[in-house]
Amino acid sequence: MFGYVFIAASVLTVWQSLFNSLAALCGGALAIGVGRLIARFLGNTPRFDTMRRLVEVPEQPALSLRLDASSGTTSLDFTEVSELEIVHKRVTDTEIDDYDNYELNLVTQDGRRLNLVSHPNSVQIAREAQQLATVLGKPVADWRASTTARNGKLN
User: Fold this and answer.
1) What is the CATH number of the domain that holds 107?
2) Predicted TM-score (pTM) above 0.90
3) What tens digit of pLDDT does each residue of 134-153 get?
């Protein structure tokens, strides 16, 4: 974000000083480059490229450090996606209270399931699923109310 501000500032300061303008331009390019480098090494969230119609999903575990942008990711064309799926799981833990957890998965034409996000907020996960379904043009299979899960296994 700051990189783009610097670049815009460089355009606005051209009339004042060429040196200030070039400094702002270089600062903006540096900020954008560092931001992209950090996102490349530490980025662990799925990416949806609507221009190329591609989905990139990092492999689990999500906290692994990647040295190559292509290693550890699965790339799919939008046409390879069959549907989005919301799955309910009951998490049991001896240290804290049991809680409901919801996963948003991307289901491929060949039946593979790729986890996009997982958290306990049912309303938020449904909203995220609907937004992605609109972008991808795919249906959402919402299994929250129709199944009861305990420890990841259906009863």
Assistant:
1) 2.30.29
2) no
3) 999 999 998 877 654 444 44
